[in-house]
Amino acid sequence: MGNERLFCSFYLGEHLFGFDVEAVQEVIRHQEVTRLPLGAPAVCGVINLRGRIVPAVDLRRCLGMGPAPGGCVPANIVVRAAGAAAVSFLVDQIGDVVEPPTEAFERSPETLRGVARELILGVYKLQDRLLLVLDIGRVLRAAYA
Q1: Phi/psi of residue 126, nearest 5 degrees
Q2: Is the dihedral of CA 48, 49, 52, 55 positive or negative?
């Protein structure tokens, strides 16, 4: 393995996103979310992760996307940003661990608008689609704003 990076991929709608796999603590298919009053709009509640209370962040809301289609049961990707406590991101569907070649990376296009422009580090051109790489730190700041 050269300079390639590994990404934990997931879907929001038909879009494929990824977090650096080194920040991912675990992936959980579904966990019941307990709603909290007076939280930031993107923080939809907390989950109980083996006795630890972990905030649950709606990634769709962070990216300015509409709600998930009816009947969609969200999965959880639990991450730990540098020096931060664990956070669970709610996603539509879990993907695979992806190892795109370094030369397939491109910065986000200038035409990208809205909050997504701040949260997406860049794009990897894969064989059949694009992998949009998110900056976990920026996503967390947006979630708690």
Answers
A1: -95, 180
A2: negative
Is 133 within 8 Å of 81 (Cβ atoms)? no
- For 145, other C-beta atoms within 10 Å of its C-beta total 10
Write out pLDDT tens, residues 116-144.
889 999 999 999 899 999 999 999 999 98
* Rg of the chain over all Cα atoms, to the nearest angstrom: 15
pTM, two decimal places: 0.90
Domain parsing of the chain, residue ranges = 7-144
Q: Which two tokens stand for residue 102?
A: 């370094």
Q: Per-residue pLDDT tens for 42-80? A: 999 999 999 999 999 999 999 999 888 877 889 999 998
Domain covering 7-144 in this structure, CATH number: 2.40.50.180
Report CA-CA distances (Å) from 54 to 49, 92, 116, 137: 7, 19, 24, 16
